Structure prediction request, 53 residues.
Amino acid sequence: MRHKPPKNRKFGKGVVKCRRCGTTDGVIRKYKLYLCRRCINEVALEMGFKVYE
Prediction:
């Protein structure tokens, strides 16, 4: 059985990718960050965010 390749998206969650790792899951677009939540967690201190536990 053959499958069609996925169509190119213009809108929605599948369009926005993380600038660091390329995933489309959990991308934070606020303030034009375009980083996924996992990458934000790793780079937050370098970007100037304070981590409260």
About this structure: The first helix runs from residue 37 to 47. Helices lie at 37-47.
